Amino acid sequence: MKIKAIIFAGILGLLWAVCATAQPRTKATPSAAAIYSREDADAMRTDGEQRFRANCGRCHAAPQKFPPRMMATIVRHMRVRATITDEEMRLILHYMTQ
Amino acid sequence: MTGGQVSLSFNALRQRIADCETGRSAQQSAALWFDRDFLCVDVTSVTCLDLRLTDNQPRHPKIGEKLKFSFKSQGRCRKDAVLLLATVAFLLCLAPRLLAQAADTERPIPILTGNAGFFTHVNGGKSELVPEIHPVILFPIGNRWLIEARGEFEAEFERPDGGGAYRGKVDKGLDYLQADFIANRYVTITGGRFLTPFGIYNERLYPIWIRSLTNEPLIFPLGTGSSDGVMLRGGFALSPKVNLNYASYFSTLSTVNKFEADRKIGGRIGFFLPGQRIEAGASWQKLLQEERPNSFGFHFAWQPIPLPLNLRSEYVRSNEGSGYWLEAAYRLSQLRLWNKVMRRTEIVGRAQQLFAGTISEEEAYQYGLPDVNTRQGEFGINYYLHDGLKATASYGRRFSKDGNLNVWTVGIAYRFVFPLARLGSR
């Protein structure tokens, strides 16, 4: 009984550690059947541009492209301010840094 | 084994993949081969092939493209399970270090951004010079945190009634000083002083380099401003065609200088259709002081895809007043005549109306609201000289019981961005 309690506590501890250190999800969950394709940078860029126009373009025109680490800060700021989704943030960041 | 060139319908391809998964020898097919753990296929026809590679990104593969599909036999699954457990245990030990390394490669840096402008207003024949600057500091920490703050320095210089040089004072304020924690893809937790999420103008359209007309809408003071407290907010896809965004907050009473806020609760919810570029939403706020009135707001925004047109509107109903504004901004980029100039030019129109609320004249003045029913029409033109730099001019006519007057504005606005750390290499 005591061993079970220790194991249970250990599992809980591991779960806590996983949750505490996990990064926010940044990629869409792959479908069950066809799971993976090679990275298609052009498709991502096109998709990112569409997301930019649909989300950011509602308020302002496209700004110049900044260095990636600056852009990462700006996109995080806009994720909070404009409540864009996690997926959109990832695609827009890709578009703005390519 | 590399494959030859054969055409496959989607169903045929799916059957061959299923055959491989069940151990049949379809992997020897001319179009399929193994590359380590992946089953690969040459795409030779896209006539019937429509693969959904991820949940949200349906796409057609190109002819000649090589696609990969993963599949696992039962035996491999057992081995993978053991390997997975070992990997998880290993990662748990090294997780903090691994995350730190991942963060180093694309780590966001602190930046100083914001906007500055200089405007001349002529209201009813009385001119006013308004230089202003709104610095914004963004300080990201790790992968989930962002500290952000915006200050406001705005002067209003007027000539004295008897004539003479322009005089005035500089107003200083702190619009927000907040810590954001991105808890997961659905929720961001914000604490500190933040812009009250009521409608869309306060949070999204207020910066002078973004707003299409320099003058704020008449109803802008209703329900907006800043709050001190806690906020939960986020945005996520309800379906591929609909995004939901929301914000809910509690603000405490504060009389601390530069941190003044009312005790209140409220929230905003919006639905955005990315395909049509339409957003509609509603806001609610309840004051929790001696009086406990409710305020309601509705917003709508639409960007028709075929046109460089931006339509926005808000409606507010509250004790302090009610009203609406409706704005259309059209970029002249589709005009062929003088296209180099026209594509940088935007024309704007706004119609608005305010119905005075049940507050005294003095209270209305404190809120920055007209104390009588007021209507206003306004037209403007913006010329974008450079990214983040625009010249603007507008004319409006205000109608009210106190008298009608002309409202002229001309000015320039600039948005700046500076890194506060070494950019490094990605």
Task: Explain this structure.
The complex is a heterodimer of chains A (98) and B (426). Chain A has 98 residues and is mostly helical. Chain A has a domain at 39-98. Helices cover 61% and strands 0% of the residues of chain A. Chain A has helices at 2-21, 41-55, 68-81, 86-96. Chain A is globular, with a radius of gyration of 19 Å. The model of chain A is unreliable at 17-36 (pLDDT under 50). Chain B is mainly beta and 426 residues long. Chain B folds into 2 domains: 10-71, no CATH class; 110-419, Porin, CATH 2.40.160.10. Helix content of chain B is 14%, strand content 50%. The radius of gyration of chain B is 29 Å and the shape is globular. The interface between A and B is large, with 52 and 73 residues.
Briefly say what this structure is.
Chain A has 98 residues and is an all-alpha fold. Chain A is built from four helices and no strands.
The percent range for helix content of chain B is 10-25%
Radius of gyration of chain B: 29 Å
Radius of gyration of chain A, in Å, reads 19 Å
Please mark out the parts of chain B with pLDDT under 50 across 5 or more consecutive residues, or reply none. 1-7, 24-30, 34-38, 44-58, 70-77, 90-105
| Class from secondary-structure proportions of chain A | mainly alpha
Overall, the morphology of chain A is globular
What attributes characterize this protein structure?
heterodimer; A: 98 residues; mainly alpha; globular; B: 426 residues; mainly beta; Porin; three-stranded antiparallel sheet; 5 helices; 21 strands; 50% strand; disordered N terminus
Element layout with pairings:
The complex is a heterodimer of chains A (98) and B (426).
Chain A (H helix, E strand, L loop, with lengths): L1 H20 L19 H15 L12 H14 L4 H11 L2
Helix pairs in contact in A: 2-4, 3-4
Chain B lengths: L9 H12 L10 E4 L2 E5 L8 E2 L5 E2 L6 E5 L3 H32 L5 E13 L2 E16 L3 E14 L8 E16 L5 E8 L5 H5 L20 E14 L2 E10 L12 E10 L4 E10 L6 E9 L6 E10 L2 E11 L7 H4 L2 E12 L4 H7 L6 E13 L2 E12 L4 E15 L7
Antiparallel strand pairs in B: 1-2, 2-5, 3-4, 6-7, 6-21, 7-8, 8-9, 9-10, 10-11, 11-12, 12-13, 13-14, 14-15, 15-16, 16-17, 17-18, 18-19, 19-20, 20-21
